[in-house]
Amino acid sequence: DLNECGLKPRPCKHRCMNTYGSYKCYCLNGYMLMPDGTCSNALSCLMANCQYGCDVLKGEVRCRCPSPGLQLGPDGRTCIDIDECATGRVICPQFRHCVNTFGSYMCRCYKGFDLMYIGGKYQCHDIDECSLGLHQCGSFSRCYNIPGSYKCKCKEGYRDNGTNCILIPNIMIEPPDPYHI
């Protein structure tokens, strides 16, 4: 039997134990034997099985999340989303509302507004449904644009019956006949 542990270069990085016809490698405490026979720090990100990677600080493995909008979940390995909109920390510009996304958020224009580049910056600008013909006002009504929407008002001589404008009937009421009283 040849003592492979005594050969140069040494077959094992840390500890070697001669066996009959072969040898076995062992690692020092805090290290793990890898498939290729080398020893790797047992406190490695590979062993931690973190969702997005980790850091090894002062001999301790800590999983990390790639965005400030994510936090470590109860298992200490996966990242869960922080709803920035629900926390109230986000203030969106005028005519925008907060929409949560995974790991972040966005400020989206209210319904009835379009994002436009005006005066060197992006702003939510009111859509004029009346001038663009994007309204449901009938032919006997007028469309009036309001911020984010529109209103329909009946033309003179018409009134709304709940769904559209109808003609107000001209009812003539005859004055009482003074001779028949």
Question: Layout of SSEs?
Answer:
Layout: E1 15-19, E2 22-26, E3 31-33, E4 39-41, H1 45-48, E5 54-57, E6 60-63, E7 70-72, E8 79-81, H2 84-87, E9 96-101, E10 104-109, E11 113-118, E12 121-126, H3 129-132, E13 141-146, E14 149-154, E15 158-160, E16 165-167
Quick gist of this model?
This protein has 181 residues and is mainly beta. It has three helices and 16 strands. Strand 7 (70-72) and strand 8 form a beta hairpin.
Describe the structure.
The chain folds into 4 domains: 1-41, Laminin, CATH 2.10.25; 49-81, no CATH class; 83-126, Ribbon (Laminin); 128-173, Laminin (Ribbon), CATH 2.10.25. 7% of the residues lie in helices and 40% in strands. It has 3 helices and 16 strands. The protein has a two-stranded antiparallel ribbon. A hairpin with a 5-residue loop joins β3 and β4 (39-41). The chain is rod-shaped and about 145 Å long. It starts with 14 loop residues before the first strand and ends in a 14-residue tail after the last strand. The mean pLDDT is 82.
Short key terms for the protein model shown above:
single chain; 181 residues; mainly beta; Laminin; two-stranded antiparallel sheet; 3 helices; rod-shaped
Rg of Cα set: 39 Å
Shape: rod-shaped
Strand tally:
16
Task: Write the CATH homologous superfamily of the largest domain.
Answer: Laminin
Proportion of residues in helical segments: under 10%
CATH architecture of the largest domain: Ribbon
Domains (count) = 4
Keywords: Calcium, Cell adhesion, Developmental protein, Differentiation, Disulfide bond, EGF-like domain, Extracellular matrix, Repeat, Secreted, Signal
Pfam families: EGF_CA
InterPro entries: EGF (IPR000742), EGF-like_Ca-bd_dom (IPR001881), EGF-type_Asp/Asn_hydroxyl_site (IPR000152), EGF_Ca-bd_CS (IPR018097), Growth_fac_rcpt_cys_sf (IPR009030), Nephronectin_domain (IPR052235), NOTCH1_EGF-like (IPR049883)
GO molecular function, one term: calcium ion binding
